Amino acid sequence: MTFLVTALIIWLLAWRLNAFLAIQAQQKLMGFVVPALFGLTVLIIWELLVIGLAVPGVILPAPTAIVVAFSTNIHILWDDLVQTFFKGALAGYTIGCGSAFLTAIAIDRSTFLKRGLLPVGNFLAALPIVGTAPIFVMWFGFGWQSKAAVVVAMVYFPMLVNMVQGLSASEAMQRDLMKTYGASYWQTMAKLKLPAAMPFAFNGLKICTTLSLIGAIVAEFFGSPILGMGFRISTEVGRLALDVVWAEIIVAAAIGTMFYGLVTGCERGVTFWHPSIRGQSAP
């Protein structure tokens, strides 16, 4: 009972402090302090409730137990990260987004492809990953290649749709002006269509950052060597080692957040002229 009362008091005090700091959220430092304090409060409450209610570790491990599991298995977590993210997710992300970019240019060049390929792509994007992942494992083996293939299938269509929409975002008057100047198709593409499509392209790239990691992890449930986040999660769940599972989840969330942040940073550097980016950098 003491743990529950303590948790309630800490929650109320942190709530009042966060409410006060949120008023100062226009300051850059407060924009970091408020979510950090909220996250720390959640962890403290989590720890107290798990201990106070005597929750079994196989149901929900305490944050301290997860930290211990993280520190004792850090070499395993690193090997799993390399296998899942750097080999499977990142390779599939690069191939899928790159091929979607080239396909979008071909579709913009050909009306036939726009009418024929997009409906087929829409159908393929609707296929469930739990159905296609085992097939890719049978085709490409148990290595990272099958996981990259699953990621390609997941990220290709979202990136394609955003690029096709982006390439058509320029106004008709702007395109007519390029024709008046005697610009060729590729000059119009380089000077007008691609710059106008960049916000759409980065929107697709940001969406695909999370899809790529999810696809690689899920694919490892259907066949993997003795490495990988998906393999480790399924194995440790069978052993009831939920603290290791949570450690893998934390690593996946952290690398996914950093990957998304990297793409967002590139977006701000490339599309600094766009009103949405200028609005974010305004004081």
What is the secondary structure topology, with strand pairs?
Blueprint: H1 2-22, H2 28-52, H3 63-72, H4 74-109, H5 111-125, H6 129-140, H7 144-167, H8 172-180, H9 185-220, H10 229-238, H11 242-270, H12 275-281
Helix pairs in contact: 1-2, 3-11, 4-5, 4-7, 4-9, 5-7, 6-7, 7-9, 9-11, 10-11
Task: Return the CATH topology of the largest domain.
Answer: MetI-like fold
Distance between the termini: 48 Å
- Examine the secondary-structure arrangement and name the CATH architecture of the largest domain: Orthogonal Bundle
Low-confidence stretches: none
Name of the CATH first level of the largest domain? Mainly Alpha
Instruction: Write the H/E string, N to C.
Output: HHHHHHHHHHHH
- Alpha-beta content class: mainly alpha
Shape: flat
Largest sheet data: none
CATH superfamily of the largest domain: MetI-like
Which key phrases capture this entry?
283 residues, mainly alpha, MetI-like fold, 2 domains
Q: How would you characterize the overall build of this protein?
A:
This protein is mainly α and 283 residues long. It is flat, with a radius of gyration of 24 Å. It has 12 helices and no strands. It has helices at 2-22, 28-52, 63-72, 74-109, 111-125, 129-140, 144-167, 172-180, 185-220, 229-238, 242-270, 275-281. The chain folds into 2 domains: 2-55; 70-281, MetI-like fold, CATH 1.10.3720.10.
